[in-house]
Design brief:
6 strands, about 25% strand, six-stranded mixed barrel, Barwin-like endoglucanases, about 150 residues
């Protein structure tokens, strides 16, 4: 019985060693971490009323209708997102710096400048796609074609 367990243990060690050698030479990363999945949200967006201009946001920043910012409950403060108006395919890149009221079902509220660039200030609300770009400020030259 002892001899059988020693043989199995030796076989397991050899098999493990062979797998490691093959993975090393073939460029297979056995310990690779899962790549981050880009988060995409769909829903309605509106824009802030003028009465909020100059007030403090939930993140502590002072809100301005002229800045490219938004409120979003699903993403952390400081997250950069690309918002696409699904009606006309216009796109804008904004930073999350505020929260919506918990009962609000919209995905985001944008500053007037961002809503105007998306072309829905006359409608008040637009169906949008929200794509997470990350925590670092994106190179806006990459999005100049938008």
């Amino acid at each position: 019985m002892y001899l059988l367990s020693v043989m199995c243990n030796c076989f397991a060690k050899k098999t493990c060693f062979i797998v490691l050698i093959i993975s090393f030479f073939c460029g297979i990363d056995l310990f690779a971490q899962k790549t981050a999945v880009k988060k995409t949200l769909y829903g309605e967006a509106s824009f802030y009323a003028n009465k909020f201009n100059g007030r403090q946001t939930a993140s502590g920043e002072i809100f301005s209708q002229k800045k490219m910012t938004c409120a979003c409950n699903a993403l952390p403060f400081g997250t950069w997102i690309r918002i696409t108006n699904l009606r006309n395919n216009k796109t804008v890149v904004v930073k999350v710096n505020d929260r919506l009221h918990p009962k609000v079902k919209r995905v985001t509220d944008l500053s007037y400048a961002a809503a105007k660039q998306l072309g829905y200030t006359g409608h008040g609300v637009a169906r949008v796609k929200v794509e997470v770009l990350g925590k670092t400020k994106p190179n806006l030259k990459e999005y100049s074609f938008l």
